[in-house]
Design brief:
The mean pLDDT is 94. The protein is an alpha/beta fold.
Length: 335
């Protein structure tokens, strides 16, 4: 049983995880590791048991598991130290802003029998799980094309503070639309198969006060488990005021559309010539994060972690790097 968890980072996502632990797992003690001195009033308000400013002090408190919620550029150094001391890891996406060193982390986790999970919480969303199910059941028949898009206005998304100082806006911290919204690359691989090649355009188009890209357009070649190749398109941006997150699958027998914001999966039947709502649910906004933490803790307790989700996360970072390379060289890049 896990009785003590370390949270690394006290930004918005770190605070979200603290809230989940204190609300749903009140018997678990919470340690916070942050780079600033701890504010006693704040730690008391959040329900934190211990707050430290060095990894040495954090390890000395003997956490059994850790949630890594600091900027992605800083994930690996801390994660490798924790894994070396037997601490199970749930790392906020992406696992890192670079593929360099990720294989070393995976190796340390395997050598120490440590669970390594990456927090792509959309995998716990009921509507996306339904989409996965319908694709596996070949609801559309042969898939002819896949179109995915995600976009929102960064100042509205990061409305709690100056958006230009957020991780999303700073390249050095692992920001930019490609890494911040890498959920899309994760679920495309999860549902349809491994991404084998990309042809991409990456740029900054808006007047947002950021030093990262705010627009990505990609064509992807995805190899499914049955050996066929799917062609997918992906559009990502930081400047769309009417937020959108959708995936459209067009096949011989019809079309499936997943709409994250509406919480729906709809199907157009080629034979009936009409739309049908196959699934509709709008769970609480924290639902996927809660389910993710539950799964993390259950997997530790059940010792069912022989295969590491670190490999999936590493592949996603490699796809991100391939997209940037494709855009820079104006070429198809094979993984």
């Amino acid at each position: 049983m896990i009785t003590r968890i370390l949270i690394v980072g006290l930004g918005s996502i770190g605070k979200k995880h603290i809230g989940i632990l204190t609300d749903h797992f009140p018997d678990i003690e919470v340690i916070v590791l942050r780079h600033k001195d701890c504010n006693k009033e704040q730690t008391k308000k959040l329900g934190i048991n211990y707050c430290v400013t060095s990894i040495i002090d954090a390890i000395a408190l003997s956490p059994q598991a850790a949630i890594i919620a600091n900027p992605s550029s800083k994930h690996l150094e801390i994660s490798i130290q924790l894994a070396s001391h037997g601490v199970h890891l749930l790392i906020e996406k992406p696992i890192s802003n670079s593929s360099e060193g990720v294989a070393d982390l995976i190796k340390v986790c395997l050598e120490n029998n440590i669970l390594l999970m990456t927090a792509y919480n959309l995998r716990y969303l009921p509507s996306l799980i339904k989409l996965y199910k319908y694709v596996q059941e070949r609801k559309t028949g042969q898939i002819l094309t896949i179109n995915s898009q995600v976009g929102s206005y960064l100042p509205s998304w990061r409305s709690g503070a100056d958006y230009s100082k957020s991780v999303s806006a700073q390249k050095a911290l692992g920001g930019g639309v490609l890494l911040e919204l890498s959920h899309e690359l994760d679920y495309l691989s999860w549902i349809f198969g491994k991404i084998k090649w990309v042809k991409a355009h990456v740029s900054k188009q808006s007047n947002l006060d950021i030093d990262t890209e705010d627009l990505v357009n990609v064509i992807l070649g995805i190899h499914s488990s049955n050996g066929s190749e799917h062609i997918a398109t992906l559009n990502m941006n930081f400047f769309r005021h009417d937020a959108v997150r959708q995936c459209e699958i067009i096949g011989n027998d019809g079309t499936l559309i997943w709409d994250y914001i509406a919480g729906e999966v709809k199907y157009f039947s080629a034979s009936l010539k009409e739309w049908e709502t196959m699934h509709s649910s709008l769970p609480d906004k924290n639902f996927t994060y809660i389910e993710q933490v539950k799964h993390f803790l259950y997997t530790i307790d059940s010792h069912e972690y022989l295969s590491s989700s670190g490999e999936d996360a590493l592949n996603t970072v490699k796809v991100v790097e391939a997209i940037n390379k494709s855009s820079n060289n104006n070429s198809i890049v094979y993984l």
